[in-house]
Amino acid sequence: MPKSNFPSYYLFIVGIDTSYTEWIFHGEEKTLPDATFFNKEGDDAYNYNDYIDDADKMLDDIRVGSFMDNSGRTEYNSDAGSSQHTSNTPIHLNFNELLDDARKPLYPTYTEFSKLSFIVKLLHIKTVGGWTVKSFDMVIKLLQATFPEAQFPASYNEARCLQRGLGFSYTKIYICPNDCALFWKDHADKDECLKCNASRWASSTTNQQRIPQKVLHYFPLKPQLQRLFMSKKTAQAMRCHVEERLDDPNFMRYPVDSRVWKDFDNKYDWFAQDPRNVRLGRASDGFNPFNNMSKPDSIWPVLLVPYNLPPWSCMKDPYLMMSLLILGPKAPGNDIDVFLRLLIDELTELWEEGIRTYDAYKQESFHLRAALLWTINDFLAYANLSG
Questions:
Q1: What DSSP designation does 299 have?
Q2: What is the bridge-based pairing of β-strands 215-218 and 91-94?
Q3: C-beta separation of 316 from 349 below 8 A
Q4: Which of 313, 343, 307 is nearest to 325 (CA)?
Q5: Pairing between strand 278-284 and 321-328?
Q6: Please, are residues 339 and 327 in contact by the beta-carbon 8 Å criterion?
Q7: Mean pLDDT across 354-366
């Protein structure tokens, strides 16, 4: 049978019939759900574009709550532990320069974008559109030639420097090629796995340019949680599960209505006393990055969902938090526990010790704690049990 006779092939080439009438009701009463739960504005209250373009206002919030030394530098302390022998000393950043970029208009006669918000937008488009670094630099050069007075970054590297200055970074952790253990903490300097004796390095390299066989990308959780409270809008939304909850025992509208949330609050009432303490859900799945099953490769992202946020926001792109990015020729399977050790250790610290965090909505510092309540499957199971 020729390909053109297959409906999917026809749909791919020609597209859907423009005269098709979209049906959203199938015999049920023609009413849409009432979106008054938590916030009458619904999605518009936490619009994705507002989240990105609110950089100027967010940085003002950050400056109020920053722990700054006399030189005007903000300190970020990365304590995840890296196999690249990076020290745990604070990374000093000139926060005033970042603030100037947030206030500086992109173009003298155009104030819709600041230099910072434009760079954030451009980096976002690069990520979504799959631009290469070369194509990004070509666009920058074209913009510079067209608008010579505009405050564009000189290159992708300069734009990334600003991004890293805002704290968006990750840590590389080397792994045993057989997924036995991490070369981390006390084992960070080891060249061979203590369990299977496999080398951490590719055998075809020299000592001067040794290449690791397998690398895990870890995105520290603490700064991601702190960023949720740097914007007044988001910091207020992190409390809505208590302050704006519609308590109706006949319906489960939100994770706070589930049995596991209620049982957790009853068992750990000291944690529930502060609505800003974060309840997290975890989700992970794998995919083939090349869309070709003949190439044995997989990527397993591990994502965290902050369930404090309203139901229309917590699972949207701006608020999903990347925790781990597991790369390799095969799925981690049960060995994923080895990779999750990084996350579990940090969650244990957040549970037992917490971290000092500035609340831009309350304009005060508080001791933030976090707990992992569910995996996504656990939550769906409880949702079904709760009716």
A1: E
A2: unpaired
A3: no
A4: 343
A5: unpaired
A6: no
A7: 92
pLDDT of 286 higher than 50: yes
SS3 content of the chain, % helix, strand, coil (to 5): 40, 20, 40
> Cα separation of 359 and 367, whole Å?
10
pLDDT of residue 83: 43
Pure H helices in the chain: 7-14, 48-53, 55-65, 95-103, 115-129, 133-146, 156-165, 221-227, 232-237, 240-243, 259-267, 269-272, 336-352, 376-385
Q: pLDDT tens across 3-30, in order? A: 444 555 556 666 666 676 665 555 544 4
Find out whether 159 and 123 touch, Cβ atoms under 8 Å.
yes
Q: Specify the residue for token string 């208009």.
A: 105
Q: Cα separation of 184 and 262, whole Å?
A: 37
pLDDT band at 373 (very low <50, low <70, confident <90, very high): confident
CA distance 364 to 374: 29
pTM over 0.85: no
Q: What is the CA radius of gyration of the chain?
A: 24
Token pair 């949330």 is found at: 261
